[in-house]
Amino acid sequence: MEELKIFAPATVANLSCGFDVLGCCLDSVGDEMLIKKNDLKEVRITRITGQDLPMEADKNVASVAVKALLEQIKSDQGFDIEIDKKIKPGSGIGSSAASSAGAVFAVNKLLGEPFNNKDLISFAMQGELLASGNAHADNVAPALLGGFSLVRSYCPLEVLSLPVPEELRVVILHPLIEIKTKDSRSIIKQNVSLKSAINQWGNLGALVSALYTEDYDLLGRSLHDDIVEPVRSILIPYFKELDELVTKNGALGFGISGSGPSVFALCRGDENANKVKNVISEFYSDKEIDFELHLSSINKKGVKIL
Ligand code: ADP
Asked: Is the preceding peptide bond at 261 cis, omega within 30 degrees of 0?
């Protein structure tokens, strides 16, 4: 195999109570990438369409992640990377993670699979380190593994896959304002009160249980974030009003997707998800902020070959 075309999915990280440790994979939003072997012993970004992103190999997360993989196996194989970027950078739905995860997935296949998908997470995290200054795994893990991923530990890295309730749908609102992960990280408080911590781990444990038991009501009750959301939501226009609106219209829960500005509503079934999508669209239409809306089921496979 000399080249591979893949779909690199968008992801929702944090999911309210799972800051930096929980994420899920979407299936209706994502980039396309074409990765080819070259004879130059060099990793190059040869084409980017859709968005204005760095072409320099040391500034693009895709090439940085691939180089981390090649270094590990001491390979001097060269690769050309083409990215058709559909996920806007700084959107909060894992734009950088899609490129990092997609690139290492394709290169691993082209090299005859020296690694499994779980092993690839740590290489893709090097891309996240470049993008946000923090090697977090809650976007790259679900992008590579599909479904829900829980990072039990960063050191050593241990990632668990959680079950996906069949009827779960995600509605994403992306207000077209840019919030850089670096900036929205800098406003988070570094210390947490014991009371907030107790609320948070109670909710996270219940959320994991709800995924196993397909208990949609419990899932909804667990989607709260006492620690990060109160600070970060200030950066998102009409966050509180949206929360009230989607809750009134039957969404299971609502929160910030990754570092924002995208927000997500988890819904049960297509009918409710469409209703929630429509009320958000109506609400935001007269707010003089351009926006995009997505409705997706949970992608159980992660990156896939096209
Ligand atoms: P997101 O949460 O949507 O991934 P980030 O703010 O974390 O957004 O990452 C976007 C940053 O990463 C931007 O500064 C962008 O220039 C940089 N970047 C480098 N390479 C890529 C790439 N291939 N895809 C997306 N962003 C990239």
From this structure: yes
Question: Cβ of 178: how many Cβ atoms within 10 Å?
Answer: 12
Query: Which run of H or of E encompasses 266?
Result: strand 263-268
Does residue 252 register a pLDDT over 80? yes
* Closest-lying ligand 1 atom to the alpha carbon of residue 60: 20
Region 194-200 average pLDDT: 97
Please work out whether the CB of residue 108 comes within 6 Å of at least one atom of ligand 1.
Answer: no
128 belongs to the catalytic site: yes
Ligand 1 pocket, residue 18 CB under 6 Å: no
Token reading at 227: 């620690």
Categorize the per-residue pLDDT at 300 as very low, low, confident or very high, splitting at 50, 70 and 90: very high
Please identify which of the residues 11, 82, 128, 229 carries the catalytic annotation: 128
Residue of 158, 166, 167, 181 marked catalytic? 181
pLDDT of residue 143: 98
- Coil/strand/helix, residue 139: coil
- Residue closest via CA to ligand 1's atom 19 equals 60
pLDDT digits (tens, 9 = 90+) for 128-166: 999 988 899 999 999 999 999 999 999 999 999 999 999
Output the pLDDT for position 112. Answer: 97
The residue nearest atom 25 of ligand 1, judged by CA position, is 96
Closest residue (by CA) to atom 17 of ligand 1? 131
Tokens describing residue 88: 């806007």
Residue 11 CB less than 6 A away from ligand 1: no
Give yes or no for a contact between 144 and 117, defined as CB atoms under 8 angstroms apart.
yes
Q: How confident is the model at residue 178 (pLDDT cuts 50, 70, 90)?
A: confident
Is the predicted pLDDT of residue 212 greater than 80, yes or no? yes
> pTM surpassing 0.90?
yes
- Asked whether 85 and 49 are in contact (CB, 8 A), the reply is yes
Domains of the chain (ranges, CATH numbers): 3-162 (3.30.230.10), 168-297 (3.30.70.890)
